[in-house]
């Protein structure tokens, strides 16, 4: 044990010496100069520095260009990167420098680093034909210190068994720090210390989530796992409660008044936060004035207020299977800001004059006041479209007609239509799933989407064209890069197996052939697999201040303007647009880029939490079906198994390779399949298979299938 500790201490000294030499532009220094820069004055420690310099010079870490003077042989002896943990306890460190290869770190050389941590790693001299190997010498930042798990209490101590599969250590909790938790409860634990050489970290319980397996407990556990708070701080609630519901006459006077114009909202049947409304008026010249009115959140949420800081921190509302965790307290999200019918409401609007060909004749952006005449659910609006009758039928039918034209223009211009299946659950009064269905997107959904896209696009264009070069105005855009050609070619090869051709000659051809595929594949067994793979081959959309295009929508400029109740970037967009309409100077780009980057990260985290809640409900639903047979389609392959999505209910589980006993199967990554080594039987992505539900682990949200071989 002592040898291991001294070895690690030596590595830390090598790192400190290397930092000194790197900061001196790798100028050769003697051991006294290095000691001085490290504030080391005692003779024994200086001698240790000299010993390390001489020893590591023999090993090729340092050079001795002249007697007694040393410099680094290679500035890349140390790299920083992120830890990616594997199931066996070893890890790969993915370097910050994307041109560097991943570094393998064995479990005993991680020195308490955990999945996602940013670390500094020492790279060993590479042996011929071997991958890069290294050892963690410093944990720069922890990815997280709070974990969710089940507490096990004995007479003398307690442990928390962590749910997260990437966290391979139980957390030891002294009985003095269990804070009222009882054996078997689901809890949130925070790591307080991890002594060098100790097998397990030490922590204390900070939140008791409840009884394992109960719906509320499990949903709250998912929120806590992804770092979303379960309630609002008192000062945030107090600030929200102090905002008056009534709109003052003085405020109305400074706005364009649309209260006498026909206005309505179209939202999901169970929605409570209505952040967009559409106004419609036929003009004397036969054209149509269409207003996209968005809740004026920035009027109520002022910069640096408690509400603003909390909204920034959360950055988004989170939509779990059975609940919404709003970005803003309910007083605002479902009350003051929500565009409820028969109430005067403050909005920020994009108002367009369109002709019968959906050409934009004029556009106007500014603050409005509205009085919504009707709240439609999507189903009610769809009924009006299909029956051509009902409340505001003339307005809805004309809007639908114009939306079709806008959509057609968008696709002709190179936009891509991804229609992936969205799984929904029928839940009983206890939140238990009693049925699974796939949500349908009809004309009413698309109508709203097309007018929201129009507003987002035109607001972005308005600012982007306002100033160029050094005169450009800081703004928050929604950017989507064109796909990586290598990823797309791999997808094209796979799609070809189903008879679909992807033309990768140009962005427009890619979009055209992907749209043909999406149209062709609709309703077929392979729809979800192909759609998900196509989406994975695309770049991810992000928020940024860079004036870049949106590839998926084929827009030169795009932003998020239409959902400020549930997205913080939209609040920033409203503030910036208001400032520029008032002829104020450009905002600080660096500050907004940091906020945009934070919003992108939180958006991903919210999507992960949503997926986790779906996985939990799928596992809960199939728990009642252990032993039953289902038809499915292979939706993913990995080195340890293949994922299968059940055709009937879209639940996804895994068949582990070790459980397929007729051969020894290995992954063929390039061809998206697993192959038997003796009989050469293939199981390929998209293949239909019969499976039996073998096991369900609710705490890990895992479903295991057995393959029924035919």
TrEMBL record:
Subcellular location: Cytoplasm
Source taxon at top rank: Bacteria
UniProt entry keywords in alphabetical sequence: Cytoplasm, Exonuclease, Hydrolase, Nuclease, RNA-binding
Gene3D superfamilies in the record: Nucleic acid-binding proteins (2.40.50.140)
Domain S1 motif: 627-708
Gene Ontology molecular function, alphabetical: exoribonuclease II activity; RNA binding
GO cellular component, one term: cytosol
The protein's name in its UniProt record: Ribonuclease R
Organism for this UniProt entry: Pedobacter hiemivivus
Gene name as annotated: rnr
């Amino acid at each position: 044990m002592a040898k291991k500790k001294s070895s690690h201490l030596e590595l830390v000294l090598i790192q400190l010496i290397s930092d000194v030499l790197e900061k001196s532009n790798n100028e050769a220094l003697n051991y006294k100069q290095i000691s001085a820069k490290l504030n080391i004055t005692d003779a024994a420690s200086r001698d240790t520095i000299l010993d390390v310099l001489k020893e590591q010079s023999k090993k090729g870490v340092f050079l001795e260009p002249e007697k007694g003077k040393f410099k680094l042989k290679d500035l890349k002896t140390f790299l920083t990167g992120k830890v990616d943990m594997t199931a066996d306890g070893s890890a790969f460190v993915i370097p910050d420098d994307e041109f560097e290869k991943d570094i393998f770190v064995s479990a005993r050389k991680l020195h308490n680093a955990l999945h996602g941590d940013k670390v500094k790693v020492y790279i060993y001299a590479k042996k011929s034909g071997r991958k890069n190997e290294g050892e963690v010498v410093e944990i720069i930042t922890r990815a997280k210190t709070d974990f969710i798990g089940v507490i096990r209490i004995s007479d003398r101590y307690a442990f928390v068994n962590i749910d997260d599969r990437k966290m391979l250590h139980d957390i030891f909790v002294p009985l003095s720090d269990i804070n009222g938790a009882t054996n078997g409860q689901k809890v949130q634990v925070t790591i307080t210390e991890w002594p060098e050489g100790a097998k397990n970290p030490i922590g204390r319980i900070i939140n008791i989530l409840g009884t394992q397996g109960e719906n509320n407990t499990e949903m709250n556990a998912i929120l806590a796992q992804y770092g979303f708070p379960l309630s609002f701080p008192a000062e945030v609630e107090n600030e929200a409660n102090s905002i008056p519901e009534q709109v003052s006459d003085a405020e109305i006077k400074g706005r364009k008044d649309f209260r006498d114009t026909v206005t309505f909202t179209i939202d999901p049947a169970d929605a409570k936060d209505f952040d967009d409304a559409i106004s419609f008026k036929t003009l004397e010249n036969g054209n149509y004035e269409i207003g996209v009115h968005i809740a004026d959140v920035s009027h109520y949420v002022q910069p640096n207020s408690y509400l603003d800081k909390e909204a920034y921190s959360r950055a988004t509302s989170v939509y779990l299977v059975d609940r919404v965790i709003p970005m803003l307290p309910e007083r605002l999200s479902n009350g003051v800001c929500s565009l409820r019918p028969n109430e005067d409401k403050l909005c920020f609007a994009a108002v367009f004059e369109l002709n019968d060909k959906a050409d934009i004749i004029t556009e106007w952006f500014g603050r409005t006041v509205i009085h919504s005449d009707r709240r439609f659910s999507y189903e009610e609006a769809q009924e009006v479209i299909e029956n051509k009758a009902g409340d505001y039928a003339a307005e809805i039918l004309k809007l639908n007609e114009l939306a079709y034209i806008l959509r057609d223009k968008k696709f002709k211009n190179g936009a891509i239509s991804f229609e992936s299946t969205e799984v929904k659950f029928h839940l009983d009064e206890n939140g238990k799933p009693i049925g699974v269905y796939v949500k349908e997107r009809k004309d009413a959904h698309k109508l709203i989407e097309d007018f929201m896209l129009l507003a987002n696009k035109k607001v972005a264009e308005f600012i982007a064209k306002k100033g160029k070069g050094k005169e450009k105005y800081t703004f928050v855009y929604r950017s989507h890069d064109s796909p990586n050609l290598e990823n797309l070619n791999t997808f094209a090869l796979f799609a070809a197996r189903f008879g679909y051709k992807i033309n990768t000659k140009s962005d427009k051809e890619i979009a055209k052939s992907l749209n043909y595929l999406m149209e062709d594949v609709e309703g077929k067994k392979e729809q979800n697999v192909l759609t998900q793979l196509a989406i994975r081959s695309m770049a991810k959309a992000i928020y940024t201040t860079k004036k870049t295009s949106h590839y998926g929508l084929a827009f030169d400029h795009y932003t998020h303007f239409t959902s400020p109740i549930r997205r913080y970037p939209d609040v920033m967009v409203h503030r910036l647009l208001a400032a520029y309409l008032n002829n104020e100077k450009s905002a600080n780009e660096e500050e907004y880029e940091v906020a945009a980057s934070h919003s992108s990260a939180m958006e991903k985290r919210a999507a992960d939490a949503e997926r986790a809640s779906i996985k939990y409900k799928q596992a809960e639903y199939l728990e009642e079906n252990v032993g039953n047979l289902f038809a499915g389609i292979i939706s993913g392959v990995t080195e340890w198994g293949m994922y299968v999505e059940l055709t009937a209910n879209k639940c996804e589980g895994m068949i582990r390779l070790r459980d397929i006993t007729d051969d020894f199967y290995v992954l063929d990554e390039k061809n998206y399949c697993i192959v038997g080594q003796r009989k050469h039987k293939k199981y390929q992505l998209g293949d239909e298979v019969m499976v039996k539900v073998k096991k369900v682990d609710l705490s890990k949200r895992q479903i295991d299938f057995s393959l029924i071989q035919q």
